Design the sequence.
């Protein structure tokens, strides 16, 4: 019995799907301890948008470590943090005219969501936060309470309260006007819905099954929040950092959220880092009111700065993501209907899902793809969707190779 | 106005105490961007027990990055993780006969605490968790609910429930028998205290003011939990990894907690990493029931393995910590009573606190020490305690130098 | 200043609407201390279905008091309680084939709702209870949490949790399929709705604006609860005891709820009394697990028994209620459209509402009606509905007289 | 099988202790359907301080019913309510200089407690309410959350939150200074206790085992609440209305609570009625913010007025209660030590408890007393206390007779 089986908790999960011991990685490829190579259409669940061990970032990282740059900085001022803040301001915020303060809430996505929820409740003096069906925001109690998945929720061991779910876009296959239920509850003071402090939303629900909100739905949500004095939080942890094309996933809709959570690919190198951004006027935090040991993960600031400088000073990345995405879409919609069992494709930028009518099929496809050398994850409550999340920096050849394998896996599991 | 003031949230805190922009660091010293050097009696709030950028760990880290070892691994099996698990088993668990499974709950302390609380509630089917006066366990909602500090609690924006505080050791200056109140509530089924799923405790409360629990108090707590079928969680995030002498802070008391949280110095290099350890029989997690993007921060596994191998295969580290600690104790208790305003010293291993009768004095001492080139933090609810937390690997000379500065700072602030 | 203004809390409400000091009452008429008489279309908010001081019940009550029958009995066995239970079984339960145990949960409606919710949660081991938009179930914390009205909810002083509102019948003017949202949330394990222990519903929402659920909607709700293993609680506090025709308001739909709350008119005389009925198999209460000082209000048992014997051993009461109701409906729908500002009438049995487009109109109508000698209450979140709730035993002449006054009040307020 | 066993819920309790079917009652005696007479040392759990069917009140009640006085009045102004308010002001409030507004919160004790808690939380804008070990305040969710009994709490079916228990007087047999723990938690902003909105206390805990708080303890509590800006709620439901001597049980301590709940014997006749009294400045209720169907139980106002007029315009009642109490005390302390197994007596006014060392003994004593014709209840979490609660109006002969029976029951159960 391996040490993983003997010593590691039953909670481990990906290692069951992909029974290999990985050793090293480069770009869109991982290699296991036996030297076998795998193409990666998973990208650290969206944390490796620039590929594994991206050489540009790697160089900056090693240089920083070599010269004994500050590693652990809490929320002390450091030269690495300053470089990041200035670059983030120059490359990301200012060009998009985004009026945000930057908070380092701790280096994980759920830390960022907790901070966002705390701030929203403090600002508005209300407890309820609205989330959406099939949302995923994290595993600590605050984030879990606005997460849809019943299996994850049951892990809390206490009732999860102060949240209320609303239907995400397309939840009723577009037969029901958007926000009919939500707005009716808000305008009816006898509805039983306590006025929420905030709404938290993903523009594309990655864990929830690659559910894509339309731009007009997001705009209507932005408008509804404004009219009812509710803060809009966009959780851009998985869909930000270029995954859908623009740096933030909400840019395409032309909206400005009140609060934004960013993590996963923000460090660019897979290093733990996250941000909570919010309108300047919302910055009512007292010094030290929220803290955390690893807020100042300076090596991550270094790679984050390098990633912004390398990829976001012009629009090449965004264009390439679109081009890649179109190719994926073409491939998925071109799948043989019989072979794919009428699977439905949906996505935006370079995140795509293929939903099978038969709930067991997606797992079979991923399993077969793994055997063929491709890492692919399922998503959705019933694991009914194959999720495609290749590095944004993948080469056209590798993208083609991966799609071919996926095609074979679909074909061989029918 | 600097980018920190302009762009970073008001929540930032340490950068206000130490108004410098730090650039690099080595061992027990940091250097700011102007080349000024500071001795470090803070050690990343306990995350840098082996000093800044420890050369042994640094070599391993750079080597790993150079060879493109897996950086981001979720909970996939990797060679780096295997090496860590095997080393942790060989060097830490087996020699101490600790019957634990290892969970990677996400790389921060609060992630580990959230996982511990979730598991305890799941196992026992109860909601209440008992914590202690002046406890500190983290900033996400689950951890915050068992944290004592009213200022931090108010940040939640919702009422924090399912927790109940009990008096920590010495809370009544030893005039009251230990656990009198707690046990009376448990044995009286009319007391109004719902039987707790777990008790969560720090053996030394770092943030709470360097409050040290006696070994016999911890043993009595262990016994009480056993008698009432309550799980005992030791939060060893700040006090573990050798801070008090032994690897775990509870070893000296001869107790075996049911659940242990470990973070801060576990990676050895200040990289985000945490563990939740629990008795094998408690491992009722379903695969994937708790997850998180940065659970598999493999560079941290690499430095963690190197740290365990370099420092914990014999008892030199433990002995040195004791020696350093005795020297600190001697110094603190030898402070001129008039100069120090009858400040009281307390501590264990290499964590020490100096509590001033005048609540404003500790901040003045730290501020003066900073001016003299020493980083020192206050702790306690009223910031009434100067906390000494030097790297365990500090040299005798540096330790002496730091104590001298502290002596001057005390003297110059009377 | 009167003693009411000087000494009674600001919370008092009806005495503001009807500024008179009432002294005595008989049937459908009250008389104030100046001898002025008022016709009563309010009936103690549904507590006086048999009219004020009904002579049949009055005789039984005085007789019982005269002979020193037990007044206060907690849950002791008494001859008065036995008579009630036997009569309730013979006259109500057995003819309708209702398989219920009877609990005396305390003499108010909110006591009954609290007991129902406690039992449902105990039985199912779940916390969430679904209620409906514009529901009203009571003012104690458990009942308030499933009540829709935001103004009432705010009185709690704590966040009200463990409830989730769903759309009542006609909430979207029948443009949306019934239970579309509710069932979708239940079947989608990623929806974020925790599986509820129970659904609590009024068949006609009295306080919520006289909203009438269709029989087929109630049947579909019954069916949905069965399919998802959720208990169905009908709160028949205001609509039971013959108000809609049959003894229970759910009879017409042909459904059998799992739990039923009964209060208001159950004693028949306006004396505090309530029941919680539930399927035999749900009776998992431990002796004394729920208690209350006034559960055994024996004078109320006496009048309740007399009321059942006098009015429910044949179908005359039910028929008369229907006849009265048809007359009210005819009158309301025949109101001059211009005069009534296109007010909409709705109701069932002898509970009717007249909703005005102009929110301020209903209060004006009630105020004018009072000046003309008729007690009429508004209902609905915005007090936009005039509610007609005459005693069921009202004479045809009095009913006509009241409707005439209402007609004048409508006419004179346009 | 009787209708009680067949039809009534398992939750029934007293009818198991006293297996008789009671029919009528007068003064301190009940008669069952077989004509057997029982002396009553239970008094409706404190609801029958003036005895069963007190002739003075009975006359007023029948007169009122005969003349068709308003029975059910919600919160309408009535002549009966006015008479009560004026009498209550003249006889109770003014002579004691109590600056209270009067709220009719619904006719049960738990309604009054719910109203008190809601108001306290509204006024202070805080959620937490401190209660005491072995407290009993009611069965609806708000009241249950501040009740100590674990068995009753478990009935809630949800976690009970927003409450914190503190030690009642004598909880540590006077070895610990009063309020040591409570005040320490309040003054320590790191204690983990959220500042409470209110403290709720019984001066003598009836259900909790006849635990008597000393006057100086109550004064210290009053003082502590004032110093920390916490509202003091005295729950005088069981101990008010003369049970301990004065009309309110807190009078003897010379304190003025901010809020007082009154119920049980306030109507004097065992009819459901309750009051919530509070300082005028706390009356921030909006009209109708708290309501309830049976707030205006006018027959209860009539008997309440008659009781106040008959018994509280001079000090005879108070003196007689003291005299009776002294006799009971003398009897209990004079019990043969061997026979009584060193039972300990405690009490105040005419409420007394006899605590047996052997937990099973009290039930045996009560059971034997019942066989000998005396109703006696146990109290305390383990039912370890025999509780003596005779009507205040009991005759010296009947009191002697009851004590004799108790003596025999003790003797015959050793």
Sequence:
């Amino acid at each position: 019995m391996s040490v993983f089986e003997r010593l590691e908790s039953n909670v481990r999960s990906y290692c069951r799907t992909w029974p290999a011991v990985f050793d090293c990685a480069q770009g869109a490829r991982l290699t296991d301890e036996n030297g076998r190579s795998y193409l990666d259409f998973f990208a650290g669940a969206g944390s490796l948008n620039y590929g594994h061990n991206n050489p540009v970032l790697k160089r900056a990282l090693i240089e920083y470590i070599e010269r004994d740059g500050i590693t652990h900085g809490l929320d002390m001022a450091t030269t690495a943090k300053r470089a990041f803040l200035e670059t983030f301001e120059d490359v990301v915020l200012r060009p998009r005219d985004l009026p945000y303060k930057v908070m380092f809430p701790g280096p994980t996505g759920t830390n960022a969501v907790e901070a966002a929820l705390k701030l929203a409740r403090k600002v508005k003096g209300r407890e309820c936060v609205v989330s959406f069906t099939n949302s995923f925001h994290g595993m600590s109690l605050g984030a879990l309470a606005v997460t849809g998945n019943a299996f994850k929720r049951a892990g809390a061991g206490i009732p999860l309260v102060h949240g209320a779910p609303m239907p995400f876009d397309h939840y009723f296959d577009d037969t029901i006007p958007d926000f009919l239920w939500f707005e009716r509850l808000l305008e009816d003071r006898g509805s039983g819905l306590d006025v929420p402090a905030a709404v938290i939303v993903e523009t594309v629900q990655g864990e929830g099954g690659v559910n894509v909100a339309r731009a007009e739905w997001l705009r209507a949500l932005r408008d509804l929040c404004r009219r009812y004095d509710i803060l809009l939080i966009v959780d851009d942890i998985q869909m930000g950092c270029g995954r859908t094309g623009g740096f933030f996933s909400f840019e395409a809709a032309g909206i400005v959220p009140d609060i934004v959570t960013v993590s996963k690919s923000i460090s660019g190198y897979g290093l733990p880092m996250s941000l909570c951004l919010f309108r300047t006027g919302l910055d009512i935090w007292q010094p030290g009111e929220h803290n955390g040991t690893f807020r100042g993960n300076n090596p991550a600031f270094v790679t984050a700065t390098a990633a912004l400088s390398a990829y976001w000073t012009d629009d090449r990345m965004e264009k390439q993501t679109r081009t890649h995405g179109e190719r994926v879409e073409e491939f998925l919609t071109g799948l043989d209907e019989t072979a794919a069992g009428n699977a439905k494709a949906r996505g935006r930028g370079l995140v795509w899902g293929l939903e099978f009518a038969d709930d067991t099929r997606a797992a079979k496809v991923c399993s077969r793809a793994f055997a063929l050398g491709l890492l692919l994850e399922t998503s959705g409550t019933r694991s009914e969707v194959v999720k495609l999340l290749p590095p944004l920096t993948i080469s056209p050849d590798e993208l083609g190779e991966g799609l071919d394998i996926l095609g074979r896996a679909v074909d061989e599991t029918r």
Summary: Chain C has a mean pLDDT of 97. The longest helix of chain C spans residues 79-96.
